[in-house]
Amino acid sequence: MSNITTEQLDKIAHLARLKIEETDKPKYCNDLSSILNLVEQINAEDTSNVSPSAHSLDVTQRVRPDEVTEKNEREKFQKIAPLTEAGLYIVPPVIE
Q1: What is the pLDDT of residues 9-37, one digit of tens each?
Q2: Which region among 2-6, 16-20, 50-54, 70-74 has the lowest average model confidence (pLDDT)?
Q3: What is the mean pLDDT of residues 86-91?
Q4: Domain boundaries, given as residue ranges, for the chain
Q5: Which residues pair with 89 in a beta bridge?
Q6: Kind and range of the H or E run holding 89
Q7: Cα–Cα distance, 25 to 19 (Å, whole number)
Q8: Which residues of 44-79 are buried (b: 16+ CB within 10 A; e: fewer)?
Q9: Cβ distance 2 to 31 under 8 Å?
Q10: Which long-range contacts (CB under 8 A, 24 or more apart) does 6-15 make?
């Protein structure tokens, strides 16, 4: 069982750049300890016979056809752009 001490909480808070009030520290210690205990329980389970999966159910993703559904309005949009060249939008440099 992992029990987070106040000193460990202070170190975690410092690394995460968090300010935790003294009155809240016991609750944070308890909550973090509960999370770590849950992780220990999960890690204790034997998963050697479990194959990796992207979904809990054996289903496949429905994929729509890759089709163009809008008309090409590039010329219209480039006419209102401040600066274009060879079909590309020219933008000012950000980093010199």
Answers
A1: 999 999 999 999 999 999 999 999 999 99
A2: 50-54
A3: 93
A4: 6-44
A5: 84
A6: strand 88-89
A7: 10
A8: eeeeeeeeeeeeeeeeeeeeeeeeeeeeeeeeeeee
A9: no
A10: none
* Pairwise CA distance, residues 94 & 35, whole Å: 44
User: Scanning the structure block, which residue is given the tokens 């975690």?
Assistant: 12
What is the secondary structure of 2-66 as a DSSP string?
----HHHHHHHHHHTT----GGGHHHHHHHHHHHHHHHHHHHHS--TTPPP-SSSSS--------
Q: Domain 6-44 carries which CATH code?
A: 1.10.20
Q: Specify the pTM.
A: 0.52
- Give the list of residues 6+ apart from residue 46 with CB closer than 8 angstroms, or none: none
